[in-house]
Design goal:
The structure holds 2 protein chains of 2 kinds. By secondary structure, chain A is mostly helical. In chain A, strand 1 and strand 2 form a beta hairpin. The longest helix of chain A has 22 residues. Chain A has a single domain, classed as Cytochrome Bc1 Complex, Chain D, domain 2 (Orthogonal Bundle). By secondary structure, chain B is an alpha/beta fold. In chain B, the strands form 3 sheets. An 8-stranded mixed beta sheet of chain B has the order 6-5-2-1-13-14-15-16, covered by helices on one side. A 6-stranded mixed beta sheet of chain B has the order 7-8-9-10-12-11, with no helix packed on it. A two-stranded antiparallel sheet of chain B has the order 3-4. The chains are: A mainly alpha, B alpha/beta.
C-alpha cells in the first residue's frame, strides 16, 4: 500500500466513524431544508423590495414593480441599451437604488443584493430562461 | 375632430414659444356635439402620488410630474371649461402630502373637480381630503352632459374598521399595490343607491360620463385593477345610450367596451405600472381590445406618463394620447363596430415590438 493509499484509507475510515454522509446522497428532508433556506431569503428579498429603507427618499422598489413585474430576471445578463453594455441583473438593481430610490448601491455579494435577486427571480418562476432578450 | 385638431395645434404653438416641448401629462377632454357652439373641453390630471419624506422634503420625481401637468394645463388653448383630478394626490394620505398637492393644484386656472383615490383615503377615511376638496361622490351637469363622480376605492367594513390596530398601518397596507393583506375596491351599496336615484332623473339620451379612481370593470384583482361591485354599477349605466367611464389608478393605457359603456383609463403624472400580464403568476383579464402602450424606459423619469385629448363626439369618446418620449396614440370610438379602437395599432399585424409585454 502506497502512502497515498494509506492516507485515503485513513480518511475513509475517519468519515465512516463520524457518520458523515456521502457527497452525492441526500434525502427528501435535505431538499426541504434547502428549499426552506431559499424561501427565507426570498422572504427577506420581498421585505426589502417593499421597504422604504433601501433608499433615502421613502420610495420602494415595489412602487414601480409590484410583484417584481417588469424586472425580467430571466433575460439577464443582457445588453442594457441605456448603459451601453451587457450587464447582470444586480447592476440594474443598483441603477434603481441610485436613481429612483436616491440611495447607495449594494456590493454584488451583499446579502441584501442576494435577497433582492432571489425574490425577483422567484416571482418569475416557471418562465423560461431567455438570456439577452430585450 | 376638427375642433380638437385646432386646439392641439394651438397648444403646441404656445408650448413651442415657451420651449417646453410638445407633451403634457394631462388629458384634454373635448366634448363635440352636432351643435358646435355646445363643444367644450376639460383637462384631466391623475395619480400624482405626492410623497412626503420628512420636514419640508417631498419626493422630487413625483412633485415634478404634477408641477409640469399643472403648468402645461394652464397653457391649454382653448382654455378648458374645468379640470378633473383623478385621485391619488397623496401617497400615504397625510396632511403634509394633501396640503402640498393641493398647493401645487391651486395654481390651476378655473374649476377643479376631484376624485378620491385609495392613497388619499385610508389614513383618515377621507376626512382631511373632504375639508380640502369637498364631497367624495357627487354629480353635476355641464352643457348637456351629466357627469358623475364616484368613490370607487372603498372596501369591506371589516377590513376598514376591524382589521388594523392603527390608521397608519391601514394606510400602509392599502398603499402597497401588490399587498396580499389588501382588500378589493368597491363603490358600495350606499353610493349605488345614490347613483340609481341620481340617474333616474336623467333622460336616457343624455350623454353620461362617470369618473372613478379604479376601473369599473374587472381586470386583475391582485393589484386592484378591479372594482368588486363593477357588474352592479355597470347595470345601472347600461340603460343609457352613451356612457363613458374614465378611470385612473392603473397608470397605463387601457380601453374596453362592455355593452353601451366605453371604458378609458388616463395616465399618471407619477410613474407607470406594468401591465398585469407582466406578472407571471397572475390570472388577469386585460381587455383584449387594449393595445398596450410601449414598455417604459426607467432611464427617462417621465416615460410612460402622458396626456390625452378626449373628444366626446356625439357622446362617444375619442382619445388622443400624447406620451412622453413615445409616439402619440389615438384611440377613437369606431361607430360601426361600436367600440374604441387604436387608429394605428389595433390590427395585430400593425403592432410594434415595444408593445409586447411579457
Amino acid at each position: 500500500m502506497s502512502t497515498y493509499q494509506k492516507i485515503a484509507m485513513a480518511l475513509c475510515l475517519a468519515f465512516a466513524s463520524t457518520g458523515s454522509s456521502l457527497a452525492d446522497e441526500f434525502t427528501e428532508a435535505d431538499v426541504q431544508r434547502w428549499q426552506q433556506q431559499f424561501m427565507v431569503v426570498v422572504g427577506e428579498g420581498r421585505e426589502l423590495w417593499t421597504s422604504p429603507k433601501l433608499g433615502t427618499n421613502g420610495v420602494a422598489c415595489a412602487q414601480c414593480h409590484p410583484n417584481a413585474a417588469n424586472t425580467h430576471p430571466e433575460t439577464y445578463p443582457k445588453f442594457q441599451k441605456q448603459l451601453g453594455k451587457v450587464v447582470p441583473l444586480w447592476q440594474m438593481i443598483n441603477w434603481c437604488l441610485k436613481n429612483p430610490l436616491e440611495g447607495q448601491p449594494l456590493a454584488a455579494d451583499d446579502p441584501k443584493m442576494t435577497a433582492l435577486q432571489a425574490y425577483v427571480t422567484y416571482e418569475r418562476r416557471g418562465v423560461k430562461l431567455e438570456p439577452g432578450k430585450h | 375632430m376638427s375642433t380638437i385638431n385646432n386646439s392641439r395645434r394651438n397648444f403646441i404653438k404656445t408650448a413651442g414659444t415657451l420651449a417646453i416641448g410638445t407633451t403634457l401629462p394631462i388629458s384634454l377632454v373635448e366634448l363635440a356635439f352636432a351643435e358646435s357652439s355646445q363643444n367644450f373641453t376639460f383637462a384631466y390630471i391623475s395619480d400624482a402620488h405626492i410623497q412626503h419624506i420628512k420636514d419640508n422634503r417631498f419626493v422630487r420625481n413625483w412633485d415634478r410630474g404634477l408641477i409640469r401637468a399643472v403648468a402645461e394645463t394652464n397653457l391649454l388653448t382653448p382654455k378648458p371649461d374645468f379640470v378633473m383630478f383623478g385621485g391619488d394626490l397623496a401617497q400615504l394620505g397625510s396632511k403634509p402630502e394633501l396640503d402640498h398637492g393641493a398647493e401645487i393644484l391651486s395654481a390651476l386656472h378655473g374649476n377643479v373637480h376631484y376624485v378620491m383615490g385609495e392613497h388619499d383615503y385610508y389614513l383618515d377615511l377621507g376626512e382631511y381630503w373632504g375639508k380640502l376638496f369637498g364631497p367624495q361622490y357627487y354629480s353635476f351637469d355641464h352643457k348637456g352632459v351629466h357627469f358623475v363622480v364616484l368613490n370607487s376605492i372603498k372596501t369591506y367594513d371589516d377590513w376598514t374598521f376591524k382589521r388594523w390596530p392603527t390608521a397608519e398601518q391601514r394606510m400602509l397596507e392599502m398603499a402597497d399595490l401588490d399587498n396580499p393583506n389588501g382588500s378589493p375596491f368597491m363603490v358600495g351599496e350606499e353610493q349605488r343607491v345614490w347613483l340609481k336615484d341620481d340617474l333616474d332623473k336623467i333622460d336616457k339620451d343624455t350623454p353620461v360620463v362617470v369618473f372613478s379612481h379604479s376601473p369599473l370593470q374587472k381586470i386583475y384583482k391582485g393589484w386592484n385593477f378591479w372594482t368588486e361591485d363593477a357588474d352592479q354599477v355597470q347595470a345601472l349605466l347600461q340603460p343609457f345610450n352613451k356612457v363613458s367611464v374614465i378611470y385612473g389608478h392603473v397608470h397605463q393605457i387601457q380601453y374596453n367596451q362592455i355593452g353601451n359603456i366605453s371604458f378609458n383609463s388616463v395616465m399618471a403624472t407619477a410613474w407607470p405600472w406594468p401591465y398585469p400580464q407582466a406578472y407571471a403568476q397572475a390570472e388577469q383579464y386585460l381587455p383584449k381590445l387594449t393595445v398596450p402602450m410601449n414598455r417604459a424606459d426607467p432611464f427617462f423619469d417621465r416615460d410612460a406618463t402622458g396626456w390625452q385629448f378626449i373628444n366626446l363626439a356625439n357622446g362617444n369618446l375619442d382619445l388622443d394620447y400624447t406620451l412622453y418620449n413615445n409616439t402619440s396614440r389615438i384611440v377613437r370610438y369606431n361607430t360601426d363596430k361600436k367600440r374604441p379602437e387604436d387608429v394605428a395599432y389595433q390590427d395585430e399585424k400593425a403592432r410594434i415590438v415595444p408593445q409586447t409585454h411579457y
